[in-house]
Every structure is written in structure tokens, then in C-alpha cells.
Design a protein that fits this description.
The complex is a heterodimer of chains A (633) and B (371).
Chain A: H1 2-5, H2 17-44, H3 46-54, E1 58-63, E2 70-71, E3 77-89, H4 97-110, E4 131-134, H5 139-147, E5 155-165, H6 172-175, E6 177-180, H7 183-188, E7 199-203, H8 204-208, H9 210-214, E8 218-224, E9 230-237, E10 244-247, H10 251-261, E11 266-272, E12 277-284, H11 298-306, H12 315-318, H13 328-337, E13 347-349, E14 352-355, E15 358-361, E16 369-371, H14 373-378, H15 382-392, H16 394-403, H17 425-432, H18 438-444, H19 455-466, E17 470-472, E18 477-481, E19 487-490, E20 495-498, H20 503-518, E21 535-541, H21 548-560, E22 565-572, E23 579-585, H22 591-615, H23 624-628
Parallel strand pairs in A: 2-10
Antiparallel strand pairs in A: 1-8, 2-3, 3-4, 3-5, 6-7, 8-9, 10-18, 11-12, 11-23, 13-16, 14-15, 17-20, 18-19, 21-22, 22-23
Helix pairs in contact in A: 2-3, 10-22, 13-15, 13-16, 15-18
Chain B: H1 6-10, H2 14-35, H3 46-66, H4 69-74, H5 76-93, E1 95-97, E2 100-106, E3 109-111, H6 113-131, H7 144-159, H8 163-180, H9 184-204, H10 207-217, H11 227-239, H12 251-254, H13 266-299, H14 303-327, H15 345-370
Antiparallel strand pairs in B: 1-2, 2-3
Chain lengths: 633, 371
């Protein structure tokens, strides 16, 4: 203390009093300046500025963000944005919307154009809140409205981007469509980032990745004159464009599958077994998503939703079908792993199998004779699997089916995925209040009965065999990119489990599946190819054996045809599979004859393309950026 | 050095403490309001962070209060040196937002060493001028070392780039030099030099900084760009009128039309919601704080104490004046926070610590008197 006290020498407390006076003056003057300025802004200009902030001369205009593009795995654009011209009415000098509409109708009729019926006009128009009159108008209508602007007070044209689905029906099921946010969706939205009038994804990837695709709205504060015209911008927060989505889909395979299906009802799911990437996903019949551009008309909506072919259902992920003989691999794996049989175990097939007082038939009426597992799969012997079913029991089969990813949604990147059905004793008891019958297990062993799978589940189950036992989550999204092409997020393969089956048994089944295609007498022999070893399994699902509770729902479809569904699942090349294809054709008869050729088209396309890209590098797909530019009106 | 003296408690400067608490409390309410939104219920929780900053600030205040300021003054150069090292860390390990690299991360928080430098150069200059008392006005040559003390961090900060903080350092330097006294001939030379250097300085400014200054002179020049800040801010302030729109009711604020409304433009939020009367009350509170700081300076028992008290008071004064002047559109937009009101931890903690130092000087005059 004393040491520091030394410094006090020569210091005279209070010597700064004079300086204080000067400082006091400077500070007072400075702060007075602030007060004067506040007085000027808040009291003198206050009313004026308050008006500018609150009354109608300053309006907040929403700037819609540009929705992200959707591209295939080679960055070919699948969904683009196009400018659409809308007519809006901005109530200001005149609020009489009906007179304005009548005037437009009159102008239209003179040129034999029609004005669409407005679904709902707001009961009371609020000043300066635009009312949409007509969406996505033709150039001709645009010209009419623009040239008669003086006769149409308050009517303005606005440009908004709309989605252009370049592949139409072919990819409609996966990509989906957009639409104006509904009241319920607004209420349900938890992020609070939606407001009325926003365009959001309603179906498919558009819905699943809506948050990323949508972007962020901007806003502009504009000063408007008495006529409601913007005279100047007071400030603008630009909209942030949405991210571009790169899918795992290969357009060429998608197209091959779509063309091969033709106008038949059915679905194709194509996977890369090495990582779960979905290469193609086709569902037929389909719909043209472009009719949703700028709001679907009531008639179109009625027609679509009442179509008996259910074009809006994505059969590849939500169509549930009995797996038929394709299910035999599950039963085979279960029996091997449970030690009930060895690959050499044989059963005799004379064409029938008796259990209790019921007789079950093999599809080959004259029987297969003595068969081991390999031949049983190659020739799809039903009796062999009736035996296995009896040995295993329903619950053990169910456990293995679940390990193959059946019986529950796989979690693909799309909304409305169904889980199929893998029955157990418990399930039947609680659902139907009946006890399980042995006969049901026996028909279940060849994939008939209560069993239901979706095409994507089927493809994924075979992918698990193909890759040696890893269950991946099927993925449709490869990555997200920003507008300028920077990668925002990469979606990695997701392992969901490992098949609880020893590798040598998986190998036995793979060999048998190879035999089913490549050996004489194999049910998929039609697919035999020289250059690529294909492994596969046919299936035929009986339609009339539909379970009771599904009957009502599918009544229409059943009456449309009592023929069986044809199934075919395959992968190639044998040894190191790169592609899995599952095909389901509704009411098309036997799988080998009808479904296998569809799969063959896809496999051929895949390997033809692979050969091509190996010999010459692919031309760089055009940059997404230029596609996204919108011409100014 | 830390000595729990009964007199520290007896003579505690309650006026200063309560003034700062009131102003910080107003700031907190204001940040709550600026984060509140009528349209978006997804509340941003900035005010909770601000509470954390105030609490950390109070710890800094307590430390600065209990450690004898003469100890700090004696080690002023070391403290100054540490702050310069931290500034250098910003360049190697700092992280950037919106085009400038100002922050370093400490734990979950980020810290701006440039805020700390505002305080450490006061300590360093106070020590220098205490050591070199000459009893007459200083010549320019005699100001070379103090100039060096300021110019080093000044250049670093300008490089970040942070025009506002650089400006504050320079103004603090000038204030202290005028306070300790400047030879009148030197004054003239300095003024002339300043006039010549201005165009050269202009050359070194970044584009956005030039743009801001140009826009200040004519906001309409670029209503979509940097003039936007000023227009929006003036509309917000003006629309508050005499009595204001009321707490949480500022439409400019709630529609998020004010950019940086929690940080540099926080006063416009306040003025919109509390009006002219609220603004007057806030200015009177600041004036009281500044005058109280000057009172502490007058009654300080030693030269470094007086200089530190002066420097801290001037720091608060200039930040208040420049920030509010900028929000009201009479000064160019430079990034300077409003003391105790702007959201931001570094500024809050450093200013709280500075106030602790003021209290320290305030209370020790009694202790020194009696020894």
C-alpha cells in the first residue's frame, strides 16, 4: 500500500475540474444533438414516418423463392422451373371484383377464350391484398389483359415460376408434384415457416424433401401510389433459392422399365445391392404431374382420384402383393439356418402334398420327383417348400422374413410407403380372432396366403442375398446441392441390419437363383444371357386367394381380372451383383413369361450403358444453373 | 493484490452499479422484443444468451472491482500485450461471419478480442502518460510511443475488417491526448496531417465500407443496398412517435425489416416501441452514467486512476453517441455497438469489466485518502 502511495506525490486531486467543465459542455452538446434529431424524427416527422411504416403506402411484398431442381444420378434435369403468368386483382380504387371478372369474361368471349370457373372468391376483399383470378394463362390471354389494362382497374399480371416435369408420367410417382399449401398443412406445420399462398410439395420427392427444395421466401417493402402501383422499393430481402436434389435414379433404366411395362398395370423397383441406391422406381398406370402446374382443375382432380387404375398410387412402394414363389428364398434361408435341412436334403414331389384333410398341389401336376434345395428353387417346386413350411412353422418364417426387411416399411425417401404384411400366430389371433391353421403355414411357404410385400421390399430382400447379407435402407436421394453446385449434403448408404444366415447358405441360395435362370428347366430360363450371369426367381401370386380384410379394398381390381399377378426378381452379374430388379405385373399370368422380359429390358439397358460409359467417358451433363434461369416477362 | 477490505463494501459505488443494471435490464427487454415475432412463433432465444453474457459480465465486473486498479495499471503493458496476442489469434484461428474475421471461439461462446482491446489501450495509455508527465502540452514527437500503442491494434482491426472498432480506438486515442494536453503547434500540424491523410485512408477502405460512408451522405443513392439500413432504421424510430408503439408492438421490428436489429441497430427497436419519451429516458440514463464516470475521474486520488476513469467514460460516451447518431441517420453506418443494449457478449463483458474498474477507482479514493 505504501509503495503505491508514493505515486500520490505531486498529484493534486481535483486538478481536472476545469477539464470537466469543458467535457461537460461537449457531452451535453453531443447528446442534445441526438435529442434534437429524435425530436425531428419522432415528433415532427413522426406521423409521416408512422404512416410509411404502417399504412397502405408501404406494402410488404413476398418474394417467392425459386424451388430447387430435381436431377437424376447423372445430373440430368428431371424437374425444371418455367415462368407462368397469372392474373391477379389488387383491390384499391375499386373493390368490385365481380365487375372486373365480368369485364375479363367479356373480353375473352370476344376472342372465343374461356375464363375458368373460380372455385371460391373471398367474401370480402381486403385493400391491397391481391386476389388470384387465373393461373398460368396463355400468351393470347396475356395479350388481351395487357392491352386492355385501362378497362381493368386493379388487374395486374404476375410472373411466378411453376414446375415443369420433363419426364411426365414416367417419373410422376417418385417425383410427385407441388401445390398451394392447404389450411390443414398450415395448421400442422410446426416450423412456422409456411404462409398462405406458399407452394409446397404434395407428393413424392417434392413432398419428402420439400423443406430443402422450397427455399426461403424473401420480402420487399415497396411504396405504392394511390393506384396501388409500386412506385419504389424501400428495401428488399432477397429470397433464398431451394437446394437442388440429385437422385440416385438412372433415367435410362427408369425409361427402360417404363417402356417395358407399356400400358400394363404393375411396378418395377431397381436397386444397387451394394449400397441400397434406388436406380429406378416405376409404377403404372401413372399420371401427368404437369396438370398440377398452377393448380389442378376440379375436373382433372376428380378424374384422377376416381380412376379405377389408381394412377396416383405408387405401386412400387405402396402396392402390396402376395410374393408368390419369390418368397421361397426366405423359407429356404430359414430352413437352412435353423438346421432343419442341409443343401443336400431331398424331398419327393409327386405333384401333391397332404396335410390333415387338405391336399396342396405343386404347380407341376406330374411332380418333380426327388428334389434337393437347388433343384427345388430352380424348378420352383412347391411340394419341397410345403415340407419346409411344415417343419418351420409360421413364426420362424416370419422372423426370417423380417430379417429380409419384409413386413415393415423400409424407410425409403418417399411418403406413403407401405409395410406389407408378414403374418404370425399372434397377428392372426389379435387381428382376426382366429387361431392359426397348419394349412395356412403350408400355403404361406410358397408365398400365398396372408403374406403381402411391396415391390421395393422384394427388390431389397433379394439385394440382401446378392450382397452377401447386408440389409440396406433403399435410398432415392444421392445429394443436395446449392444453386451454384456446392454439395450441401451427401446421403450415405445406411446399413439396417445383417441377415442372420451363414454365408455358405446365402451362397447356396444364390447358386440356385443362378440356376433358375441359367439351367435347363429353370423357371426364369427366358432371361438367360451369354454375357451377364443373371440370377432370378419367378413368382405367381394368386389373386382370388386374397385375404378377407383386403378384399373389400381391392374388390374393384379383382373384378377387373381374376388372373394371377406375375412376379420376377433378379440380380446380376452373378458373383458380384450390381443391380437388382423386381417386377410385378398385375393380372398378367405367370411370372416367367410376362414379368421376366420386363426385368430383362432393364438389365440389358444397364449393361449396355455400362459398356458404353466404359469405352467413352460420358459427356458432362449441362449445368443446372443455366436451366434455372427464368426469362423476364 | 486482492484484499477484502471492509471499506470496499462500505464505500461501494451503488449509484454506478444500479445505473448499469438498469441500462442492461432495459437492453435485455429490448432484445427480447427484437427476437419476438408476431408472425413467427419460432422464438429466437437470444435474450437467454444475453442474460448469460450479463452474468459473465458481472463476474468480470467483480474481478475488476476487487483487484486493486493500481495493480492492473502497473501491469498495463502486459495486459495490453495479451490482448494484442489474442487479436493475432483471430487471424490464425479466428472464424469469420459476414465477410469479416473477428471472433475466436472459447468453449461454446465466441469472443471478439477487438472489444477487449478498447479497454487495454486505455490502461496502456494511462500508464504511459503517468510515467511521462512533463507539465506542459506534448509535442507530436513525444506522442510517438502512445501512437504506436494504438496504431498496432488499429491496423489489425482494420484488417479484419472492423471499421467501427478501429474508429473507436482512434477516437479514444485522440480524446486521451487532448485530455493530457497537446502543444498548440502540434495540434495544427496534426489537423493538417489529418486532412492530407483522409484521402489516403479512403484508398485503404474496403468497398463495403466506402459504400456505407457514401450512402450516409445520400441514403437514397442505394435504397436496396446499404441505404436500406438507414431508411428502415429512420422509419422505425420515427414511427415510434412521442409515446412509442409499446413493448413487443414495433411493426418495423416485428416484421424483421430492421437488419441487425439485435446488434448495432438495437436502438431503433427501442425507439420504435418506447418513442421519444423512452429515448429521452435512456439518454438521461446514459448521461448520468457518463457524468458519474467523470465525477469519479475528478475525485480520483492518482493520475493513472483519473486517466483510466476518463478513458472508460469516454469509451461509453463515444459508443453511445456514434451508435445512436448512426441509427438516427446523422452519422455514417459503422459497426459500433450500443453499450449494454446491443446483443453481443464481448462488448457486454468488456464494458461490465470496465465499469468494475470505475467502481474500483471510485471506492479506492476513500482507501487512499485514509492511508
Amino acid at each position: 500500500m505504501r509503495k503505491i502511495g508514493d505515486r500520490l506525490d505531486g498529484f493534486e486531486p481535483g486538478q481536472f475540474k476545469r477539464k470537466f467543465k469543458m467535457l461537460f459542455i461537449i457531452i451535453s452538446v453531443a447528446l442534445s444533438l441526438l435529442v434534437m434529431r429524435m425530436w425531428y424524427l419522432q415528433v415532427i416527422e413522426g406521423d409521416e414516418l408512422r404512416q410509411r411504416s404502417e399504412n397502405n403506402s408501404v406494402r410488404l411484398r413476398k418474394i417467392k423463392p425459386m424451388r430447387g431442381l430435381i436431377m437424376d444420378k447423372d445430373r440430368r434435369v428431371l424437374v425444371d422451373n418455367q415462368p407462368s403468368f397469372d392474373i391477379v386483382f389488387i383491390p384499391n380504387r375499386t373493390k368490385d371484383i365481380r365487375t372486373v371478372i365480368d369485364k375479363i369474361k367479356e373480353l375473352y368471349t370476344e376472342r372465343s377464350l374461356t375464363f375458368p370457373a373460380l372455385s371460391a372468391l373471398p367474401g370480402r376483399v381486403k385493400p391491397f391484398v391481391p386476389v388470384l383470378l387465373e393461373r398460368n394463362i396463355s400468351m393470347e390471354k396475356l395479350a388481351v389483359v395487357e392491352t386492355h389494362a385501362l378497362e381493368l382497374p386493379g388487374v395486374a399480371t404476375e410472373v411466378t415460376p411453376v414446375r415443369q416435369y420433363l419426364n411426365g408420367e414416367m417419373t410422376a410417382q417418385i417425383i410427385g408434384f407441388t401445390g398451394e399449401v392447404s389450411r390443414e398443412e398450415l395448421d400442422r406445420s410446426t416450423t412456422g415457416k409456411l404462409s398462405p399462398g406458399d407452394i409446397i410439395g404434395k407428393f413424392g420427392i417434392e413432398k419428402f424433401l420439400d423443406y430443402h427444395l422450397r427455399g426461403k421466401s424473401g420480402a420487399e417493402q415497396v411504396e405504392v401510389n394511390v393506384a396501388g402501383k409500386a412506385v419504389r422499393s424501400l428495401g428488399r430481402i432477397p429470397a433464398a433459392p431451394g437446394d437442388n436434389v440429385v437422385l440416385t435414379i438412372d433415367s435410362a433404366l427408369q425409361e427402360a422399365a417404363w417402356t417395358a411395362l407399356g400400358n400394363r398395370a404393375g411396378a418395377v423397383a431397381v436397386l444397387d445391392p451394394r449400397n441400397g441406391a434406388v436406380l429406378a422406381l416405376v409404377s403404372s398406370p401413372s399420371f401427368d404431374p404437369n396438370i398440377f402446374n398452377g393448380g389442378i382443375s376440379f375436373d382433372d382432380w376428380e378424374r384422377l382420384s376416381n380412376d379405377p387404375g389408381h394412377p396416383m398410387e405408387n405401386r412400387s412402394i405402396s402396392g402390396q402383393y402376395p410374393p408368390g414363389s419369390t418368397y421361397k428364398i426366405v423359407v429356404a434361408a430359414a430352413a437352412l439356418e435353423e438346421g432343419l435341412i442341409t443343401p443336400e436334403t431331398t424331398f419327393h414331389c409327386n405333384g401333391t402334398f397332404e396335410s390333415g384333410d387338405r391336399v396342396f398341389r405343386c404347380w407341376q401336376a406330374k411332380g418333380h420327383g426327388n428334389v434337393n434345395l437347388h433343384r427345388a428353387i430352380v424348378e420352383s417346386c412347391d411340394v419341397y417348400f410345403y415340407n419346409l413350411g411344415k417343419l418351420l412353422g409360421v413364426d420362424r418364417i416370419a422372423a426370417y422374413a423380417r430379417a429380409f426387411g419384409l413386413g415393415a416399411p423400409l424407410g425409403i425417401d418417399l411418403p406413403r410407403e407401405k409395410g406389407g404384411l408378414i403374418p404370425t400366430k399372434q397377428w392372426k389371433l389379435s387381428r382376426l380372432r382366429e387361431s392359426w391353421q397348419m394349412g395356412e403355414t403350408i400355403s404361406l411357404a410358397i408365398g400365398q396366403g396372408f403374406n403381402l410385400v411391396t415391390p421395393i421390399q422384394l427388390a431389397n430382400a433379394y439385394a440382401t442375398l446378392a450382397n452377401g447379407g447386408v440389409l440396406y435402407r433403399p435410398r432415392l436421394v444421392k445429394q443436395l446441392e446449392s444453386l451454384d453446385g456446392h454439395v450441401v449434403k451427401i446421403y450415405q448408404p445406411e446399413k439396417q441390419g445383417v441377415l442372420p444366415v451363414r454365408p455358405q447358405y446365402i451362397q447356396v441360395i444364390n447358386q440356385a437363383l443362378w440356376g433358375a435362370v441359367n439351367e435347363k428347366g429353370g423357371t426364369g430360363y427366358i432371361l438367360k444371357r451369354q454375357e451377364q450371369d443373371v440370377c432370378g426367381k419367378t413368382g405367381t401370386a394368386q389373386v382370388i386367394g386374397l385375404p378377407q380384410d383386403e378384399k373389400a379394398r381391392k374388390a374393384k381390381r379383382v373384378s377387373a381380372g381374376f388372373r394371377d399377378h406375375a412376379l420376377f426378381v433378379c440380380y446380376a452379374p452373378y458373383g458380384n451383383p450390381e443391380i437388382v430388379v423386381a417386377v410385378i405385373l398385375e393380372n398378367a399370368g405367370h411370372g416367367g413369361a410376362t414379368a421376366a422380359p420386363v426385368a430383362r429390358k432393364v438389365i440389358e439397358t444397364y449393361f449396355a450403358r455400362k459398356k458404353m460409359t466404359q469405352t467413352q467417358p460420358p459427356a458432362q451433363a449441362q449445368g443446372a444453373a443455366d436451366v434455372r434461369k427464368m426469362p423476364k416477362p | 493484490m486482492i484484499r477484502l477490505d471492509r471499506r470496499l463494501i462500505l464505500n461501494f459505488d451503488w449509484t454506478l452499479f444500479i445505473l448499469v443494471l438498469i441500462i442492461s435490464g432495459i437492453g435485455l427487454l429490448n432484445i427480447y422484443s427484437s427476437g419476438f415475432s408476431l408472425t413467427d412463433f419460432h422464438q429466437t432465444q437470444l435474450y437467454i444468451k444475453q442474460v448469460q453474457w450479463i452474468l459473465i459480465g458481472l463476474v468480470g465486473m467483480a474481478l475488476a472491482f476487487f483487484i486493486d486498479y493500481r495493480f492492473l495499471s502497473r501491469h498495463a503493458y502486459i495486459i495490453y500485450g495479451i490482448s494484442i496476442v489474442l487479436l493475432l489469434v483471430v487471424f490464425t484461428a479466428g472464424y469469420a461471419t459476414r465477410g469479416s474475421q473477428r471472433w475466436i471461439a472459447v468453449g461454446g461462446f465466441t469472443f471478439q478480442p477487438s472489444e477487449l482491446v478498447k479497454l487495454t489501450i486505455i490502461l496502456a495509455l494511462a500508464k504511459y502518460f503517468d510515467r511521462h508527465q512533463i507539465g506542459r502540452g506534448y509535442h507530436l514527437t513525444e506522442l510517438f510511443i502512445p501512437f504506436l500503442i494504438v496504431i498496432v491494434p488499429f491496423l489489425f482491426i482494420l484488417k479484419q475488417p472492423d471499421l467501427g472498432t478501429g474508429l473507436i480506438l482512434f477516437i479514444l486515442f485522440l480524446s486521451i491526448v487532448f485530455f493530457v494536453g497537446l502543444d498548440w503547434k502540434s495540434l495544427l500540424i496534426a489537423a493538417a496531417g489529418g486532412l492530407i491523410l483522409t484521402p489516403i485512408g479512403w484508398y485503404f477502405l474496403k468497398d463495403y465500407q466506402r459504400e456505407r460512408i457514401l450512402t450516409f451522405f445520400s441514403p437514397e443513392r442505394d435504397p436496396l443496398g446499404s441505404g436500406y439500413h438507414i431508411i428502415q432504421s429512420m422509419i422505425a424510430v420515427g414511427s415510434g412517435g412521442i409515446f412509442g408503439k409499446g413493448f413487443l408492438k414495433g411493426s418495423q421490428t416485428q416484421l424483421k425489416f430492421l437488419p441487425e436489429q439485435q446488434t448495432d441497430f438495437v436502438f431503433s427497436v427501442f425507439a420504435e416501441e418506447w418513442g421519444f419519451l423512452g429515448g429521452m429516458i435512456l439518454l438521461i440514463l446514459f448521461l448520468s452514467l457518463i457524468l458519474w464516470g467523470l465525477k469519479i475521474m475528478i475525485h480520483s486520488k492518482d493520475y493513472p486512476g483519473a486517466l483510466i476513469a476518463f478513458g472508460i467514460t469516454m469509451l461509453i460516451f463515444w459508443e453511445v453517441f456514434i451508435n445512436i447518431g448512426m441509427v438516427l441517420g446523422i452519422l455514417p453506418v459503422v459497426g459500433i455497438p450500443l453499450p449494454f443494449l446491443s446483443y453481443g457478449g464481448s462488448s457486454m463483458v468488456v464494458l461490465m469489466t470496465a465499469v468494475g474498474l470505475l467502481m474500483n477507482i471510485s471506492v479506492r479514493r476513500f482507501i487512499l485518502q485514509s492511508s
